[in-house]
Amino acid sequence: MTDPGRRGPYAKTAERRSEIIASATAVFAAYGYHGGSLRQIAKDLDLGLTTLMHHFPTKVALLEAVLEQEDAANPDFTGQSRRDGFVPGILAIVERNLERRELVRMFSIVSAEATHPEHEAHAWLLRRYAEVTATYAELISFDRVAGRITTDGDPERLGQLIMSGWEGIQIRWLADGSDPVAAMRLLLDALLVPAVRPE
Amino acid sequence: MTDPGRRGPYAKTAERRSEIIASATAVFAAYGYHGGSLRQIAKDLDLGLTTLMHHFPTKVALLEAVLEQEDAANPDFTGQSRRDGFVPGILAIVERNLERRELVRMFSIVSAEATHPEHEAHAWLLRRYAEVTATYAELISFDRVAGRITTDGDPERLGQLIMSGWEGIQIRWLADGSDPVAAMRLLLDALLVPAVRPE
């Protein structure tokens, strides 16, 4: 367990992987998935293409690693939303995303590209939409029973619309800096009719 | 005016241009602006690259022609909205877009890409956001005075949010076929509180 001869290289591999993921996020955010190349990602790190491909043998393997960052970044969204409410739970992520501009941009571009049935990330996008919608619907139902929100709308349709609105709001923020927290508050307020208006 | 020797080539040029624009829409919709190439667009039409570049000397010139289709497709949105209401005016375009899938996809991808300040279409995107938001705000104010909607929210913020929500709703539709007309109705109903609910 404490053999330094083994720990060294492992730590180094993890560090190298996370450098590559960061570079890939920036390149996909600037050029899209189709437009970004492994060569460019390697070049930005002064790495050889062979070294990069030792860590990520294909472009889609690297894309998957990049996409997984998002889920890893919000590990306790569901627990926090049950405790404090769905509206504050969502607004906390919108706020946190202010610090993750290029990751959000990469997400926005890849999502739009991946609507195409032949895109390598199409299955990932469909899975993500289904999972997120189900989670939101469940949290909306939970908050309605708890008396935190007073909408009488269908939780699934509301959850889907909140997710879609959020996507569009983030694209606008990336383009011209329009406050995404204020826009999400307005959307959540209108759709969910909180018993106490979101601050 | 009726000299066939002159009319022939002009008509032919217009036809060729519109074929190139249609091919570019499909290629940008599949690969994004950065990922799509003039070579691919020409190849899909069995055209030489030189012939294509005779009509569109640069990639960005072709992108601009592609983007202009959108505005040309809805020439009387403002007039129609004043006459019949903003909500039916918007819903009519959402319905019409069901028939323009690849154009909408191209728009979604290029908008996400063009959030980047160095993208060739960044200035276009900012101009479009500002213009559309101003138009929506004006139509919302008009409908409120006319008693068609009962929201007391700020027209500019509402207009911006409707535009953003619409973008996200269309991306979802492109991905998994979720009904964009029903989603837009729900959004407009919650944000604008029509005196008569949108059918």
Automatic annotation (TrEMBL), chains A, B:
DNA-binding region: 37-56
All copies of domain HTH tetR-type, residue ranges: 14-74
Coiled-coil annotated residue ranges, if any: none
Domain of life of the source: Bacteria
A Pfam family: TetR_N
Keyword terms, alphabetized: DNA-binding, Transcription, Transcription regulation
Cited PANTHER family: HTH-TYPE TRANSCRIPTIONAL REGULATOR BETI, HTH-TYPE TRANSCRIPTIONAL REGULATOR RUTR
Protein name stated in the entry: TetR/AcrR family transcriptional regulator
Organism the protein comes from: Microbacterium memoriense
